Each structure stands twice: as C-alpha cells, then as structure tokens.
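Sample pair:
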Amino acid sequence: MEVVAYLHNADLLVEDDQGVAVISGSHYVLSLGDHVHIRQAIDERAKIYQVHISFASSAHTMLYDDEIFIKFEGCKDSFQDYLRSTTVH
C-alpha cells in the first residue's frame, strides 16, 4: 500500500487497488509515496501488524521491518463514513 495522505493525530492514509487503510504507530517517519507492505498479524484483536516499509526517497530499494496499528481498513466509501465518525465538527 502506498502512503497517499496525512490525517489528524499523525495517522496516515495508505491505498492500493484493494482499498484504503488508516495506520499509525510506525517507528519510521513515513512520507507520501512510501510503501507499507502488511506481512502478518502480531495481535489481531489489537490490530497490530508486522510490515515491511520501503521509502520513495531511496527508490524503494530496501525493505525495513516495523510494526503498525491499523485503525481502519476498507473501501473508499466506508472510509468517508470513518472520517465523519472520527472527525470533530
């Protein structure tokens, strides 16, 4: 999945052809265009996953191990519902 936007509270929006996800908790500073490859669940109930990260700044030449928290995953329409429910108006 590619980092496509920054959201509130240091959350990131990642997207691929399967859908979108809101992630947080990376030990790396991620930028637009970086890739996050979800590998496996570390704790499914807590939604913590092992990932590989590749950076656009290095032309995605290396993979780095990390853990992230997935706050949301789904299609773009359900993402709009998530935004409405989590944004203070």
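Residues 76-86 form the longest helix (11 residues).
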